[in-house]
Amino acid sequence: MLISRLILELLGSPSEEELGLLSEKAKLYLRQPPYHGPQSFFVVFPNVPYSAIELIKKMLMFDPRQRISVEDVFDHQYLREMRHH
Predict the structure, then answer these.
(1) How far apart are CA 67 and CA 31, in angstroms?
(2) Which residues make Cβ contacts (< 8 Å) with residue 55, sequence separation at least 6?
(3) Cα separation of 35 and 3, whole Å?
(4) CB within 8 A of 49, min separation 6: which ones?
(5) Which of 22, 24, 39, 55 is the most buried (most CB within 10 A)?
(6) Does this model's pTM top 0.85?
(7) CB within 8 A of 35, min separation 6: which ones?
């Protein structure tokens, strides 16, 4: 449970819309206080490139329909940059 709370502290609590696809048990757990607003990844990870943070945020979307696809991950700017180093 501690890990999930740490994740919520970073990403912020999901909206009701984002909870839509989850089981009732998961919804009850995620609705428990305290509510967390999202933290700035740029503050938490100040030395990480912008394109890497952008990719991570797209991969960590609560709603799987909004998450970046595997194909798009491999085509993302950050991974393209890494291939050329």
Answers:
(1) 21
(2) 68, 73, 76, 77, 78, 79
(3) 16
(4) 78, 81
(5) 55
(6) no
(7) 13
Element spanning 39, H or E: none
Quick one: pLDDT at residue 83? 84
- Half-sphere exposure of residue 39: CA atoms within 13 angstroms, side-chain side: 11
Number of Cβ atoms within 10 Å of the Cβ of 83? 8
Q: Which of 16, 64, 18, 12 is nearest to 38 (CA)?
A: 12
The total number of residues shown for the chain amounts to: 85
Which tens digit of pLDDT belongs to each residue from 22-80? Answer: 899 989 988 887 888 999 999 999 999 999 999 999 999 988 899 999 999 999 999 99
- Across 18-55, b (16+ Cβ under 10 Å) vs e yields bbeeeeeeeeeeeeeeeeeeeeebeeeeeeeeeebbeb
Token pair for 74: 């491999």
